[in-house]
Design goal:
Belongs to the SCC4/mau-2 family. It comes from Crocuta crocuta (Spotted hyena). This is MAU2 chromatid cohesion factor homolog. Heterodimerizes with MAU2/SCC2 to form the cohesin loading complex. The NIPBL-MAU2 heterodimer interacts with the SMC1A-SMC3 heterodimer and with the cohesin complex composed of SMC1A, SMC3, RAD21 and STAG1. It is found in: Nucleus, Nucleoplasm. The protein is mainly alpha-helical. The protein has a domain of 129 residues: Alpha Horseshoe (Serine Threonine Protein Phosphatase 5, Tetratricopeptide repeat), CATH 1.25.40.10. The protein has 27 helices and no strands. Helix 11 packs parallel to helix 13 and helix 18 runs antiparallel to helix 19.
């Protein structure tokens, strides 16, 4: 018996030593892989080699499954080798529960990136069915499937899934997760359906839920950030730039608070409470993003540039370690807004290069291109207008209209297309009248955006001005001024003032013209809006000449000459870039490369 006991003890000791050795080599390889992954810059090839070196050791099944998951994750997030990523994730998904749910989540993300949503949905449904004993993953997978349905505009299914998630959270005793699902339910879906009138009372109710909720500080601040993002988005969608300021300030203060809290200070005891709607680092970028959106709408373009730089810097750091698809979406939306700012401030060449950057990001993800194709063609249309390529602008806006079913974007595109037709004279009269009727701000305006309705009044005023119907133009422009002043829409205010000044100048009312053009110039300098500055300086030059103010006329003429030279130089630089050929792209995915231009149109008349 003693001999048997000794032999058993020796065998156990040998097994323990073997297990310890196995654990030590595994941990060593894992440590090296993580070191290479988190290096600056990341050394992904070496990271992959370290993880692949696990398999020749014939590790236990659990380690093998975990390694397949890690390889799939690294290949998906850091390389373009989606085939190998898919292969490793499919192997991991067949294994242990703590691995298969994460593998299912990643694999469905990969399918969505490849625009294979119909493959992703059944995978998530199966994972949801078998994850009910794992609260964190059950809640996360439910939310992920709800997001897929939301992307497909199947809001009923998305709402049902969020309801299931809220009820499950109640059953497992997670008040935090239940509250976060309730926050998502009505307001978010109503915002997506553009039912802005119905959102406000629901947001008020959600605000009360958040303020009354008792829990650890990180969870409470996380809920507050989500609620305030919804509230800010509601106001920005409604074009209410002034009304949003108190909410935006609260959101900025809230993200500062949450940035000082450490996730490991208070760990929740309930696994379902580990579910967060967005990581803290992503929340910071999101707050920068909505701040940029607000600054761009309000006409604070230097502030928009400042926050864009901060957000892009943060994104660059995050994407070194985390290539989550939402970060690419944030990057594209930031670039879309700063491109519009560049076109206003007279930096067309930079805007064109950033449009090319958006194209490159969209080339990497079919889903990203599908979601942003209309916006991309809209940006190209705006660029074409800025370099006086009106036929190309028309083609780009028409393409964008074909690709979008988003009401606000549709109204924005139609407004800009109408302005193109107005500038081209009598070539498109029937189409122009049809467009103006569809965005008639006096009755049945298609969207509830205050900003877009004010812009529609401006376009009607511009049309009446070109038709020589000056009294009608003044009525429309005064309506624009009233609306833009009410919500601090500085660009629309500046444009309306300078156009009114031009009308009074044509009518011979020089005093009233001066009263409009001087504040237009001041506001345009503050934004800064190069086109309005150019227009205002030309009017001030002519006004002062007519009034016999030679010194002021000379000063205004000098300003006009400076603005003209800046715009012309930028025009030549932009048209000389190979990316300028993007203006001819109206079909299919973004082109992979660009041919150099034969030569730009450098005529000052064509620019001005």
């Amino acid at each position: 018996m003693a001999a048997q006991a000794a032999a058993a003890a020796q065998a156990a000791a040998a097994q323990a030593a073997q297990a310890e050795a196995a654990e030590s080599w595994y941990l060593a390889l894992l440590g090296f892989a993580e070191h290479f992954r988190t290096s600056s810059p990341p050394k992904i090839r070496l990271c992959v080699h370290c993880l692949q070196a696990v398999f020749p050791f014939k590790p236990p099944q659990r380690i093998e499954a975990r390694t397949h998951l890690q390889l799939g994750s690294v290949l998906y997030h850091h390389t373009k080798n989606s085939e190998q990523a898919r292969s490793h994730l499919e192997k991991a998904i067949q294994q242990f529960e703590d691995v298969k749910f994460e593998a299912a989540s990643l694999l469905s993300e990969l399918y969505c990136q490849e625009n294979s949503v119909d493959t992703a949905k059944p995978l998530l449904r199966k994972a949801i069915q078998i994850s009910q004993q794992t609260p964190y993953w059950h809640c996360r997978l439910l939310f992920q499937l709800a997001q897929l349905h939301t992307l497909e505009k199947d809001l009923v299914s998305a709402c049902d899934l969020l309801g299931v998630g809220a009820e499950y959270a109640r059953v497992v005793g997670s008040e935090y997760t239940r509250c976060s699902h309730h926050l998502r339910l009505p307001p978010q879906l109503l915002l997506m359906e553009r039912k802005l009138q119905e959102v406000h009372p629901l947001l008020t109710l959600c605000g009360q839920i958040v303020e009354n909720w008792q829990g650890n500080p990180i969870q409470k601040e996380s809920l507050r950030v989500f609620f305030l993002v919804l509230q800010v988005t509601h106001y920005l969608d409604a074009g209410q730039v002034k009304s949003v300021k108190p909410c935006l300030k609260q959101l900025q203060q809230c993200i500062q608070t949450i940035s000082t809290l450490h996730d490991d200070e208070i760990l929740p005891s309930n696994p379902a409470d580990l579910f967060h709607w967005l990581p803290k680092e992503h929340m910071c970028v999101l707050v920068y993003l909505v701040t940029v959106m607000h600054s761009m709408q309000a006409g604070y373009l230097e502030k928009a540039q400042k926050y864009t730089d901060k957000a892009l810097m943060q994104l660059e750091k995050l994407k070194m370690l985390d290539c989550s698809p939402i970060l690419s979406s944030f990057q594209v939306i930031l670039l879309e807004h700063i491109i519009m700012c560049r076109l206003v401030t007279g930096h067309k060449a930079t805007a064109l290069q950033e449009i090319s950057q958006v194209c490159q990001l969209c080339q990497q993800s079919p889903r990203l291109f599908s979601n942003h194709a209309a916006q991309l063609h809209t940006l190209l249309g705006l660029y074409c207008v800025s370099v006086n390529c009106m036929d190309n602008a028309e083609a780009q806006f028409t393409t964008a209209l074909r690709l979008t079913n988003h009401q606000e974007l549709w109204a924005f595109i139609v407004t800009n297309l109408a302005s193109v037709y107005i500038r081209e004279g009598n070539r498109h009269q029937e189409v122009l009248y049809s467009l103006l009727e569809r965005i008639n701000p006096d009755h049945s305006f298609p969207v509830s955006s205050h900003c877009l309705r004010a812009a529609a009044f401006y376009v009607r005023g511009l049309f009446s001005f070109f038709q020589g119907r000056y009294n009608e133009a003044k009525r429309f422009l005064r309506e624009t001024l009233k609306m833009s002043n009410a919500e601090d829409l500085n660009r629309l205010t500046a444009c309306s003032l300078v156009l009114l000044g031009h009308i009074f100048y044509v009518l011979g009312n020089h005093r009233e013209s001066n009263n409009m053009v001087v504040p237009a110039m001041q506001l345009a300098s503050k934004i800064p809006d190069m086109s309005v500055q150019l227009w205002s300086s030309a009017l001030l030059r002519d006004l002062n000449k007519a009034c016999g103010n030679a010194i002021d006329a000379h000063e205004a003429a000098q300003m006009h000459q400076n603005f003209s030279q800046q715009l012309l130089q930028d025009h030549i630089e932009a048209c000389s870039l190979p990316e300028h050929n993007l203006i001819t792209w109206t079909d299919g995915p973004p082109p992979m490369q660009f041919q150099a231009q034969n030569g730009p149109n450098t005529s000052l008349a064509s620019l001005l």
